[in-house]
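TL;DR need structure tokens for one chain.
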Amino acid sequence: MPYRRNAFLLGLLLVAGPAVAQGSREADDLKRYTECMRHARQDPLKAIPAAERWFAEGGGYGARHCVAMAMFQAGRFAQAAAQFEAIARDMGRERPGLRAELWTQAGQAWLEAGDADRAVAAHGRAIELKPSDAEPLIDRSLAHAARQAWAAAITDLDRVLALRPNDVEVLVLRAAAWRQSGNSARAVQDAERALGFAPDHSEALLERGFARLARGDRSAANADFLRVARLVPPGSAAARRAEAGLRGELPGAAAPAAPPAPQPAPAPRR
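>> reply
TL;DR here they are.
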């Protein structure tokens, strides 16, 4: 699942900081970091010892970040999460924005590791550092959803929508959380609000359809599912969900999917 921030840029800032603007020797470390991250994407198991050697040679935070990213890419999620957290802690009180990003990466890695409680805690640290940033709140809502803590997930999404009231993807997430919590009426409201901005949004149509189905309105639900079937490729995940809805099958309790977003660079979510 894509990570919404530019983690590669985060790493460059960890390597260089303000010294880059002064044309200092950190340019060499930037080049090495770029190569390290490429290696982490292509062959993470080999990239880990290479990045560790760079750190032993004085690579600093950039080398440590590359180690963590390579661990994540190798599927060593808990180790990666611990590394991201350690970097954030070792930075002390410096650069709160960067530390928030590192805590976010840690939270995402903990969630991949199956530890939703630690994911919630890590995202909470990111939110403390950047309380007006919507993205850590979305991330924490997904971690709450993985714990089926729907009220907590909805509370975080409420805060996001106070910052971004017309965000279609977040409205769909909250609709899913309302539906999972048993409040199908509120789920329909959020799905319809999302559809007001994006009438052909397949996930919003699915959420409205399942909420309508939960309320016993089979005819209206089927209309939504049939519309999705016309909009999405046959055999796609959305098509399969629409087919299940047409059979009258309600999804079981599960965390809603994260909203899609561009992936400018590799990062701890997939």
